[in-house]
Q: What sequence folds into this?
């Protein structure tokens, strides 16, 4: 009986912790570049395991997506999932960006933050550990990449709503 009560308490505590929304701050190198305002924040969970927290930021026509990973994830997985999701959403030829993403994306460790910054009709820049880690100059890439989270057909509509400030967890 006591064991069942502890298990139930543990599950309730886990559910509470998963529901807590954590804003992901922009690294100083990005934050000082514009007057950024947080639009919304949310978390991606797989069953009871947190995968990452994310915050969408805007400054004028520019937007930034800051993702703090809760797990170690190899760069190859980040690239593969990005290409697969763009393909699922009907982005034409997302394979054309695989090489660029492979060259830019690092293996991430739990607690690390990756930031993607897109400016209208411009290059998309990525940041990790307070440094620029790469740029994709193709203007179509920014829309395609952000569609993974912001397209109405995203795989995670509740996270999309939270990033856009439309709902609270």
A:
């Amino acid at each position: 009986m006591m064991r069942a009560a502890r298990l139930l308490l543990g599950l309730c505590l886990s559910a509470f912790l998963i529901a807590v929304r954590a804003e992901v701050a922009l690294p100083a190198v990005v934050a000082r570049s514009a007057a950024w305002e947080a639009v919304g924040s949310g978390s991606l969970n797989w069953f009871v395991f947190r995968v990452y927290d994310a915050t969408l930021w805007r400054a004028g026509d520019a937007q930034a997506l800051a993702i703090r990973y809760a797990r170690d994830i190899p760069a190859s997985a980040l690239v593969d999932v990005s290409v697969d999701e763009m393909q699922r959403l009907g982005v034409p030829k997302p394979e054309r960006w695989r090489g660029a993403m492979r060259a830019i994306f690092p293996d991430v460790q739990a607690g690390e933050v990756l930031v993607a910054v897109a400016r209208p009709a411009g290059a998309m820049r990525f940041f990790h550990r307070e440094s620029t880690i790469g740029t994709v100059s193709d203007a179509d890439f920014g829309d395609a990449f952000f569609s993974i989270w912001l397209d109405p057909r995203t795989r995670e509509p509740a996270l999309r709503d939270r990033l856009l400030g439309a709902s609270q967890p």
Remarks:
- Residues 56 and 65 are 5 Å apart (CA to CA).
- The chain has one domain: 22-163.
- Helices lie at 2-19, 28-31, 75-88, 98-104, 139-150, 157-163.
- The chain has six helices and six strands.
